[in-house]
Model the fold of this input.
Amino acid sequence: MRMKEITTKEFFLLSGYIKEAYGINLKEEKKALVKGRLGNMVTQQGFQSFTDFYEYLVKDRTGKASRDLVNRITTNHTYFMREKEHFHFFQQEVLPALIKEAGTPDLRIWSAGCSSGEEPYTLAMLLEDYFKQGKKQWDTKILATDLSENALAKGKEGRYPAASLSPLPESWKSRYFAKVPKDSSRVEITAALKGEVIFRKFNLMEDRFSFKKPFDVIFCRNVMIYFDEETKNKLVQRFYDQLRPGGYLFIGHSETIDRRCSPFQYIKPAVYKKG
Ligand SMILES: C[S@@+](CC[C@H](N)C(=O)[O-])C[C@H]1O[C@@H](n2cnc3c(N)ncnc32)[C@H](O)[C@@H]1O
Done:
């Protein structure tokens, strides 16, 4: 079966929908990418054209069409210990400060745009390593959210290629991963560590963020690169509102926050603090 062509009009219909619903801003040069990522699905699901798929998408009330769209259109690239300077800073500076200031023995950490889980699991290992025996006295659950159900399912399953563990210390590899039966190429996060991360589907473009308590730290790295300035600035303000005073926001190293539009205090590249 030949892949369908996408017209400019069809591209704008779909990219308009994607921006409105998910904040992801696809410029016209991404036309080939959209065709490449959606083309096979459009053909296999029996649609005559991208227009037919779009019409089904806007009418569909089951959630299947948007789920399929999101699973294909999002970029889920991630890896353990990504941008490791963040984790060093988190362990050496942020955690001791938060613990000192904490009124109760709990830390609320949110990995927003967690993809397949490598970021929140890196944080969970780091917390275990930091607290050691004292960890039992602390409630440090990590909330990990993403738009893509495929990515979340991988995170919940917690199975990764053995080679992907190479950035991690040897002691972490043996402590937090187990062998996968009959599959020597993959390893699995231990049940205990899985219990430290709560995966949830959550669209950062939701009208309301109804989290019960403020967060101490939010990681939203390599997510806002897909958004335009206006969308990014609004989201940064919402993160600000979700943090407790003294809380931290980590963004990707290739991202910046316009300090004229944001009340955040700049700490160092890609790290901000709510004063
Ligand atoms: C490149 S990954 C980044 C993963 C991880 N934070 C890291 O830095 O390695 C970007 C993730 O953002 C998610 N994402 C994009 N738009 C989103 C939205 N509106 N709401 C929630 N997640 C979104 C994508 O599904 C994708 O998994």
Observations:
- DSSP finds ten helices and ten strands in the chain.
- Residues 5 and 35 are 7 Å apart (CA to CA).
- The domain at 84-273 is CATH 3.40.50.150 (Rossmann fold).
